[in-house]
Amino acid sequence: MTSTLLVVQFVLAILLTIIILLQKSSSIGLGSYSGSNESLFGAKGPGNFLTKATMAIGLIFVINTLVLGYMYNEKRNESAIDNVKTETLIPSMPTPITGTAPSAPSAPVPTVPAAK
Q: Is residue 88 assigned to a domain?
C-alpha cells in the first residue's frame, strides 16, 4: 500500500510541477510554447483552468503526503525486537539438579624443605 502511494506521490509531484510551469507569470512561463492555449481552454485562456487544477492537485498532494507520513510512522512504532523469537536466541541447556552444593577448592599445601 505504501509503495502504491509513493508512486502516486511522484506522479502528483510531476503533474504539479508541469501545471505550475504552464501558468502565466510575469515572464509568461512555459505557457507561451504551447501555442493554442486560448482555443483549447476557452476564450479567457488557461488561467482559470490551470489555477483550479493546481489547487486540486496540490490538495491531493498534501493529503497523500499526510497519509504516507502516518503509514510510515505506524511501521516505525513496531520494534525489530518484537519480531525476534526469544526461544531461538538462547539454546535450552539442561541444568543438573544436585542435592549438595559443590565443595570449595582446597588451598595448596606449601612444602617446607628439610633442615640439614
A: no
Largest CA-CA distance found in the chain, in angstroms, rounded: 132
- pTM for the model stands at 0.51
- 43-75 tens-digit pLDDT: 555 568 888 889 999 999 999 999 999 988 877
Q: Each residue of 78-109: pLDDT tens digit?
A: 676 777 776 666 666 666 666 676 677 787 77
Q: Is residue 71 part of a domain?
A: yes
What is the number of structural domains in the chain?
1
Domain containing residue 64? 45-77
Per this entry, what is the length of the chain?
A: 116
CA 67/CA 70 separation, integer angstroms: 5
Q: Is the dihedral of CA 88, 93, 97, 103 positive or negative?
A: negative
Residue in 5, 25, 24, 1 with CA at minimum distance from that of residue 13: 5
